[in-house]
Amino acid sequence: MKMDSDFGIARELSDLQKLRAQYQPQLPPCLEGTTVRVEFGDGTTTADPHGAHTISRSFPHSYGQPLAHFLRATAKVPDAQIITDHPPIRVGLVFCGRQSPGGHNVIWGLHDALKVHNPNSTLLGFLGGSEGLFAQKTLEITDDILATYKNQGGYDLLGRTKDQIRTTEQVNAAMAACKALKLDGLVVIGGVTSNTDAAQLAETFAEAKCQTKVVGVPVTLNGDLKNQFVETNVGFDTICKVNSQLISNVCTDALSAEKYYYFIRLMGRKASQVALECTLQSHPNMVILGEEVAASKLTLFDITKQICDAVQARAEQDKYHGVILLPEGLIESIPEVYALLQEIHGLLRQGVSADSISSQLTPWASALFEFLPPFIRKQLLLFPESDDSAQLSQIETEKLLAHLVEAEINRRLKDGTYKGKKFNAICHFFGYQARGSLPSKFDCDYAYVLGHICYHILAAGLNGYMATVTNLKNPVNKWKCGAAPITAMMTVKRYGRGPGTQSLGKPALHPATVDLKGKAYELLRQNATKFLMDDVYRNPGPLQFDGPGADAKSVTLCVEDQDYMGRIKRLQEYLDKVRTIVKPGCSQDVLKAALSAMSSVTDILSVMSTPSNSGNTPF
Amino acid sequence: MKMDSDFGIARELSDLQKLRAQYQPQLPPCLEGTTVRVEFGDGTTTADPHGAHTISRSFPHSYGQPLAHFLRATAKVPDAQIITDHPPIRVGLVFCGRQSPGGHNVIWGLHDALKVHNPNSTLLGFLGGSEGLFAQKTLEITDDILATYKNQGGYDLLGRTKDQIRTTEQVNAAMAACKALKLDGLVVIGGVTSNTDAAQLAETFAEAKCQTKVVGVPVTLNGDLKNQFVETNVGFDTICKVNSQLISNVCTDALSAEKYYYFIRLMGRKASQVALECTLQSHPNMVILGEEVAASKLTLFDITKQICDAVQARAEQDKYHGVILLPEGLIESIPEVYALLQEIHGLLRQGVSADSISSQLTPWASALFEFLPPFIRKQLLLFPESDDSAQLSQIETEKLLAHLVEAEINRRLKDGTYKGKKFNAICHFFGYQARGSLPSKFDCDYAYVLGHICYHILAAGLNGYMATVTNLKNPVNKWKCGAAPITAMMTVKRYGRGPGTQSLGKPALHPATVDLKGKAYELLRQNATKFLMDDVYRNPGPLQFDGPGADAKSVTLCVEDQDYMGRIKRLQEYLDKVRTIVKPGCSQDVLKAALSAMSSVTDILSVMSTPSNSGNTPF
Where do the Phosphofructokinase domain residues begin and end (chains A, B) (predicted)? Predict the structure, then answer.
């Protein structure tokens, strides 16, 4: 870790950065002022009916807690309570996992909310991520320190190191830090892994009667912390806009030079959310989603053939250029490559050195391994990540596919099935160059509001909750703020995946993969042929902060069904209404009608909620 | 080439693109209205005193023509003439070489100028670059066609294919096209290669009494068409801004994660202009300019050591991250690699297959070749480009250096000289993703104005000129418009470079390398230590079209001496003044003083202008 004195120092900002530092995100009406009301909904279950029991057993203190909605002081909700007592509190905040644009604004929002409710409250940032938490290295957040970090990218105000707070030793170190620093709250900023850790911390703290309440915040550029309660993640909007700018530039380049196929791999871990969104923004010729490949069990050869057929169809229209997007998780979605990776990772975990692995593979895996070009072999031999996946950012799937496609096109050229010009590929990986970007207006607003919500969660005394904002596709003044128990978002894997991996049945947040029945994917399918053949490239341009495009939201966010929290509330209103209408003393007819109707409703819902035998991820 | 019907079709624009399409570039006062005056300066020589004779011999019809300045109709310049006759003319325009942001605006500016002076004039765009010129495939430019291409990136309105118009066959095909299409003018848009070709075409056309006048326009993202008359090139500003955005994002990322060294290679061909400008905009830790390496004759080992020493010095301050920029031309600047490449290219040109080259290298070259990692070997064996350089965009210098640095750091770790943490490198190539960008406001304006100037060059009947704008660091209303004979920008190489390369003494425009005595480089040197050690990363942010940063100009443009054309004019004014004062009839004393002063002035200038034996590139 670098010397502490470097953290929190004021920086020189460029003119644009200065302008951005002046930007004040709006708050939704429910969070304005100091008299926020909190309304509790019904106790939560989880969307995975299989897992509910396992999860409730693993999280006896934090499972089943109600949803919380934050409302305007004037909202006409009888049960909502105004929290009037705001003693000074001490809150710690830690950046976990990979940086995502907007992270700094969570700090800012939380700091503003703390100070407006009690100027004596204290916000401590842990320096260098979870390592700083364990070592109790903190920086007290002040207005001065925040000045040059407002609406700015990166995690460099506090830094970050390791991702996990998981082992007993780590959890104990975290608890010791919270106790030593007398924290009333600990805010964990991160993606699926970090929020799973936050839930575990919350449970452990409750069990140990530690006073610190733990709150999670969904901040991950992968956009894969998605569920009933969480519509999108801080950073996803920015990443997709920056990547789409670059993809569009490459599309323009392809159309100008008319002689290259660009193979572009996109950061985003296992799920293909970033690739899907960028496709909908930029309209490249093709995208190969990991989810499609996994669902159709496509082999490497199938994918190669699919791309070659596209190249050939375009050549028949005299087109020798194109842009093809590949999510970095694609490589693991190809069944035979996944199986090979599992064997390799198993051997690596047994301590077999990378050099001698190839001789210890099963004959089938060995055959595939030897078939692959040397550069990919070397990359597949890298030690797996802490979440059990391969080092996706290091595996150049784009080069592998370009290589295989070139070989296949040359074969077709020889046997006369392909009659076009030479196939030329150029490969790119778009990842790190987007991750440090200035956050988009949306991400600035979203993160700032989430920071405020963290305060209200703590003020309401809640533990093991994630801050949530729903209705995000609408303007900020329509946003709905709330909190949901992290356990309600968990699922349980029903089978292990090879030796040494996560043990069977451990509840966790899992990356939400692209829903192949969802509206965003449907939009892609409807346009796939046009994208492939007609070069209807779309260029959203560089990230803007004013004027057209500055308020654009991600396409997936806008087309998907939303406001689950709102609908849950509306359902409660219906139930309350039935109860009011069918009060004792109502007519027999009304009661009969109510009974008959409610009986069929409950029948249908019971059938729908019975665990089926389909996949393990409900979204 | 793709079907012609695809060219010039209206496209769907994104909201931001639509806004940009509405932007109307300003014209400097001298080009407003229809009464532009042209003033001719003295006949030109060339900055390379060695070459003047050779150039004049090679270009008997086009060498030594005067500079032209375009002035306001009301300008008080006695000799300037207003061109009043504007018959309808037919002009052809061709995109040569690699696309550069802003190219479309040259078409737009030229079209506007043509039509405002005579609505019956015609502008024909050649489809698919020089191939379209040879094949006489054209698209008539109209307001409708331009609508969705104004201020937009790429070359996709017309496309481009090959770079060169050089062989007798090609030159004849171009002349045939100009004659068949009855062109009064041919506008060639491109960089050093294409403008050299334009000069050759002009000479050949004049010799053959072909009526078509040839005009060149300096459009190249490399920023290497720089000389007394040309301050910068269309596209350079955009490319540097887009790349600087990405470099800054990576710097933020490095500072947040604190565990990676990023090695970033930048597009820009032989010269390191792009790398220098991006360094001055983003302040990464290090840049290794090809010009420095060539001047100091640094070996691959020297460069590796230099980077390792930097990594080690930073580790001693507990810093394990950093960002290092490398121009793509660096690889050719390393003397021993250059020698190796020359051998390889020689053998390739003799028809030796790539597979058998390694066995035919000289022992010394062979030893270096075998020392290099396999992926680089493969890339070095690629056939050279038409300009005799290696395929720079394909050679992953960043990976080679990361590889060598890692090995050296590991060695130092073993022998105890390096005591820090593990060295981790991540490599990037930033090229194609910037090339298709929406052009910056500067490039939109500059290209549009150059387009107008093309018209005035043709209206003045000039042949073999390049359109020029000087005083560019000032606002558009201070820009000075002119034209200079392309031959005045030529230099002559004094030695060949290995077998089969450009023959000795052929005049050409050569890429302007970074001037190691220039102000921009001095600025870099002054800050190098601070950049290296203090992480004073600067983030100009994404390309903006309004507000802070939208009007920012490149740092190199702003610090360098400029307005050569203006100073040439001021000199003429002084000479005229002396002539006026010392008219026959003036006093003996005045005459004596004038003679004495002018005698010493001419002595000094004679000494300064005598050919010295230093390098072959005067800039």
Answer: 90-454
